[in-house]
Amino acid sequence: MTTNAKSKKGIDKLALFIYIALVVFGWLNIYAVNFTPDTTIFFDTNQEYFKQLIWMGVAILTVGVIMIIDSKFFVEFAYILYAIGILLLISVIFVGVEINGAKSWFKFGNFSLQPVEIAKVATSLSISYYMSRFGFSLKNKSNLFKLALIWFFPILIIILQNDTGSALVFFAFFIPFFREGLSPYIILLGVIAIVIFILTLLISNFSIIFMLGIALLLGVFFRGWKKDTIIAVAIIAGVLGISFLILHAIKGSANLDIALVFGLAAGSIFLIYKALAKRVNFIWGYMLLFWVGVLFTYTADYAVEKVLSDYQQKRIMVMLGIEDDPLGAGYNVNQSKIAIGSGGLTGKGFLQGTQTKFNFVPEQSTDFIFCTVGEEWGFAGTAFVVVFFLALLLRIVYLSEQQHSDFSRIFGYCVAGIFFFHFAINIGMTIGLAPVIGIPLPFFSYGGSSLWGFTILLFIFLKLDIYRDELIR
User: Tens digit of pLDDT for each residue in 117-131?
Assistant: First the structure.
């Protein structure tokens, strides 16, 4: 491809500086994890720090290619790149290798490639392209449905690979969706979904549905429907009792939560009838929230039992404090917190971490690289990492708002969303505030796929930013 005409501005120097600082500091910590007192050969091809150097070189070459390619290429070929990403995701299910329980890797000798990193880039480009089309509106149901297909299709394939953590990363795309005008009620639905998911681990489905029913009735009651609410309660109680007796007579036993659902359905029909008679509309929002909550209760319960592995369930239970398993599912997090806490204010010193040297924390160079920072560099080191990541995120958001192109702005928010999700969840994992779902810390964790993928995401955006005055879409 040919390059654009000479631009009036160069690559954003602040974003470039932060990128280099994070990559270099990340490599130092990968070296610290691999270092032992008897290490005498630096150029040891079997060591992770050496392999990471190679991937850093590949990343530099990739940046060079991105800078050469015409910025319009990423716009015009967005759907083709998306199709390639989807094809790779499907292919790895059949010809990939399984690592840590997920069949999501291509193996090439001593190197592995995870196509989900390519899919993140491709999906970001495709979403940006579709949302920047003339006449696109999130209020248009057809537009919203097609956007949901672009977003959800890779999630479904990744779940089939048994890589739940990577699938969850795609929910970061809600950030650009909200920036472009998605209804704030979706936030409320998301909060309800999270609360219900946690409750399914703590209490019975009957208790959750009962609380949802109470919330619905109280909402209607305080809208002035006192008499109608009392009648609805009577209908619910009556149908619940009859349903329980019928189900018990047919099956010899009955689930009380199913009988409650029948009762609430009858009560809902009554309230909808009254709303139609009174020609009021508020009831539709109430009913949507309530029945989505009921549906999600059973969906979440099924997901916990059938989709999540026993080990993933155990990790969530330990994180929530429901179970205590310091030598099993909670081992990684406990050791990580010990390592971070032992670092104090300034750390034990570079290459001096005992938790690091004796491999107390599994996956210490990948998912738990942050605990190495805490042990050897202390609070000062962890603060450096957090501040630099926040500075990068804020810089991306600032540059996104400066774009003249809808495509570039949306893509910038996609990049910021993905980085934020990885940053928040990865650090949350290491300090016990988030479940261990196995996602890397951008530019820090050992792994060529992640470094390459994050580098491509960032520098495609910086390339678009260079030509912000020329790329109009």
Answer: 999 999 999 999 999
